[in-house]
Amino acid sequence: MTNTIRAEVVTIGDEILFGQITDTNTAWLGTELTNIGIRIVRKSSVGDQADAILQILHEAHQRADVIILTGGLGPTKDDITKKTLCTYFGVDLVRNETALALVTSFFEKRGREMTDLNRGQADLPANATYIQNDWGTAPGMWFEHDGRVYVSLPGVPFEMKHLMSNRILPKLREHFKTPIIKHKMIRTVGIGESFLAERIEAWEDALPEPIKLAYLPSFGGVKLRLTTTGDNDALLDQQLDEQVGKVLPLIEKNVFGYDDDELEDVVGRLLKGKQLTLGIAESCTGGYVSSQITKVPGSSAYFWGSIVSYSNAVKVNQLGVEPATLEQFGAVSEETVRQMAEGVRKALGTNVGIATSGIAGPDGGTPDKPVGTIWIACATDQRTVARLLRLGQYRDQNIQLTSTYVLNMLREELLN
């Protein structure tokens, strides 16, 4: 078996440390490097200061075989990555004619004047292997130094991803002869991590080497990630599938999908496959459930619309909730949420209606109905079901959890 190859990812830029942009590069790089058998041992962020970058590079050299840097490759004075790499490697900047031709063509095609700063994009450390950037002017660079590989990439995510996917990852696989790492994700909903762990404890204890299990909790559910390493791709898939087959009978009720499946994707496929349409009535979630549904491309095939009935007047006038129901039981009640689900189904002419009504917080609760008291419902032509949720004190979490639970209720009804 090939030895483990270790990598460190370093993101460069004051804007990352100041929180002015969200660093999505490291998460994406972690996934992609892991998929080719390279293990991330550290992720670091550093500002636009040469001393800080040099310190990180010296530290990374001690613990990693691959050091990947993103950012600081623009044409302005605050972009100092190339000059700092020259200092680190003890070399000078040298103009790369291939890079210059590409930068020149980039500006000519857009009818824009090229300045000396733009021409400077073609100046690379003398020991760099130039990696062509098809989507921008900042070059990628590959260095081999003292038994390590250093890669410098633009910080712009779509440029970085294109370079990494098409040029760097294949080059890393060839350079290091990396092993195959395979993952299988089992997506569960409606069960907590500790309850899930107890239920599958015997199966987990019996997992053969080298298969490893990780629990990845998320809103309303847990992802079970199985990982194995080897040299035979087909055999690894077979081994993972065997373990999924063994654990599935223990947790089948809570499994909604695998790998990249999201709950809204699964619900959408069920609705489309059964040629059913959906309408949504939302109160406490304020349109969040509808936004989850419409994240899925092609959702117009089954999603007809929603009514955000934040006021009781809208519940009565648009959804047909009985005023007597609101007066006797209140907006946050089983009786009201049932009528909301049935009402939106009738108002929009859909096969299925789902509804949410509750107290998301942080205020508005009472002794009888504290913050986090939420009712959800699903209505079909067969029946209407409702469920009480008792959630916490945090508004955003309550909204997201309610969305997860009502979509899972819909999934369960569609399967039934």
From TrEMBL:
A Pfam family hit: CinA_KH
Protein species of origin: Spirosoma aureum
Protein family: Belongs to the CinA family.
PANTHER family reported in the protein's UniProt record: NICOTINAMIDE-NUCLEOTIDE AMIDOHYDROLASE PNCC, NMN AMIDOHYDROLASE-LIKE PROTEIN YFAY
Occurrences of domain MoaB/Mog (ranges): 8-175
Protein name per Swiss-Prot or TrEMBL: CinA-like protein
Coiled-coil regions listed in the entry: none
CDD domains per record: cinA
Transmembrane segments: none
